[in-house]
Write a structure and sequence with these properties.
Blueprint lengths: L1 H10 L5 E3 L16 E3 L10 H18 L4 E3 L2 E5 L4 H13 L4 E4 H7 L10 E5 L3 E3 L1 H14 L3 E3 L6 E5 L2 E6 L2 E5 L2 E3 L5 H5 L6 E11 L18 E6 L2 E7 L11 E5 L21 H14 L8 E12 L5 E5 L2 E8 L9 H14 L23
Parallel strand pairs: 1-8, 4-14, 12-19
Antiparallel strand pairs: 2-7, 3-7, 4-6, 5-6, 9-10, 10-11, 13-16, 13-17, 14-15, 15-16, 18-19
Helix pairs in contact: 1-5, 1-8, 2-5, 2-8
The structure holds flavin-adenine dinucleotide.
Flavin-adenine dinucleotide (FAD) binds next to strand 2, strand 13 and strand 17.
Length: 382
Amino acid sequence: MGSCALAELARRGVRALGIDRFDPPHDRGSSHGGSRVIRLSYFEHPDYVPLLRRSYECFDRMSHDAGTTLRFETGLLVGGAAGNTAAAGMLRSAQLHDLEVTALDGAEVMRRFPQFAMPRDGDAVFERRGGFVRPEATIAAALEAAARDGARIERSSPVLSWGSDASGAWVETARGRFEASSLVLCGGAWMREILGADAPALQPTRETMVWIDDESDPAWQVGTHSNRMPVWLFDRGSEPAVYGIPRWPGMGSPTGLKVGLHGRGPAIELDSSGGSVDAVIDSEVVAQTLATVAHWLPSARARRVDAARHCLYTMSADSEFVLGLHPHLPRVAVACGFSGHGFKFAPVIGEVLADLAVSGNTALPIAFLAPTRQGAGWMGRG
Ligand SMILES: Cc1cc2nc3c(=O)[nH]c(=O)nc-3n(C[C@H](O)[C@H](O)[C@H](O)COP(=O)(O)OP(=O)(O)OC[C@H]3O[C@@H](n4cnc5c(N)ncnc54)[C@H](O)[C@@H]3O)c2cc1C
């Protein structure tokens, strides 16, 4: 979010400084692992759709400027038991926003994509424009564009303290004090620590990404034909949803089918070095992930796990983003609580943050994400 905000500010000719405690793109926070699902028909909340439309445009512009493909349109399959909320939410979003999706029952899914096993009477939705984006490549592209347009970047430099008054804001790092007319705070899993007591309710969790060997099986590689695999997610009701992003040509390491259990946890306390990403991988979580994948993709049963990595979610109280001006400091914009579904929005969040930093408001429709909404649980001086 910070890299995209910096790129957008610099693109507008604003004198901007980006500060990160590590050396982005890095693997200490929430934005690594090679790929992130992107889709338009949003089951979480239909109000995200206009932001997603803009995000698609921004990813494509960034791809063009960087001379690389950041967004892949591979098709996306979302399914589950009859009446599952993910498929129903996608259909609702699609109806409200006139999006192209195809409703399928389980039998039709298995005819089109014989790799998968679904209840025959289950509900699924296929969205042709779904796919994935590349987080590290997006961050690198944003930072390169920011530097090209004159932004300054302070790497490996934790913000130690910050503040704001009616005339501006300041930040202190071990390298000195920086002053500006406004400040954007988007510290991912560290936002609770950065904001202190005057903050929304935020809970970091440590999630596990698993790469399964695909043995070059075409049915496990990306594509929308019946002998290929779209990006997929299966809703499991009260259990964490399971998702997969297949291998694509040019994928870096680790390679193979990337899978995970959305929001499996556990909740963690971060130490200031970010060390909790380094915790030893829990083999039980890996085994549970593989077994869950094999339930929906039976050929996974015989496959080998090639790699597993941790990555952090930052859950807000209601799982929606917390985005807007700080409720008590009008020269400070905050972006946090991305709750495991934020990366697909990164470039449009960058635009929102640039708007807020420059003018204190934005024409982009973010009212439903306001830090002051009840669901964000903002605590502190009222
Ligand atoms: C396993 C996994 C799967 C996911 N899948 C998807 C998906 O399919 N689709 C999707 O859209 N989203 C997905 N997400 C969520 C998405 O990746 C995150 O919402 C997004 O990356 C959050 O970005 P961020 O900028 O808030 O956090 P980060 O990228 O972690 O950035 C925060 C930055 O703040 C810096 N920082 C922190 N404290 C300080 C300080 N004191 N001083 C200076 N710098 C500081 C950190 O170093 C870091 O670089 C997934 C996340 C995970 C972990």
